[in-house]
């Protein structure tokens, strides 16, 4: 079964009406100005660029702790953890030249059949298994190269990947740290910046709104928010803690196991731990959990009494979530099943609000 270890590093947000701004300049070695550098809150649509003098202004920052990223082609991205409100309202950023990106990017010829095959394999693991290839495109695929061995397939990119997602209405710039696929696991990690595309007309705008809602509903973010709010069933989820000995024996019995042969009874409130002043909630969750989202149906269900998207979530360390359902440590939960099939093509920005899709 395909497994997916999440995606990009998630900052957290405490949304409120008050907004903040950050100003500063971007330079090399503290002296040479860098115009056109991107400054953004990682994983969100909040970003700006430095002007001709290297100066930038990032506005409308919500309160909370955020990962601020400064990047420019040819330089190593700089990540700074920032608190708003905080003592710092001006931040000058110094970028270092990245010698790796000075190498020539690969020129893909029609005869390079192996690379094309490898790229298709990469697309499937990176973008996901259910996206529409005509609507989600990596526009600079020539920057990707691959390494294969008997037990692993990995990819690296000499420049940030540029992804146009015409299904959800975003342009995504992804600074890929690593990508690896084995027989049992697909994982990738990096920094993402989202930019909303401009719809051609009202019809396309309505389509994007529907697709964003569809991507959110039944997602890990949706489930974790429902769990934190103690609204699992109200949001359309059925969830049970799974006895570990049944983890690799999915088809034994029914999903709604009335005899509790496979399940451990729990109350949602028992899993919700303390919440910090910053809005982080710790989950007291130690064994696998199996979930269905009963507001969607599938044609080939795992269990005949539950013809719905099915997922197993396996804790792999301390789990902390935000009030919006974002996972602080992307490696703290392993996903099997439906949620494990998602990729960048299905991913929404961290500042996505279901009430204003």
Automatic annotation (TrEMBL):
Record-linked InterPro entries: CarboxyPept-like_regulatory
Keywords: Signal
Signal peptide location: 1-16
Protein name in the entry: Carboxypeptidase-like regulatory domain-containing protein
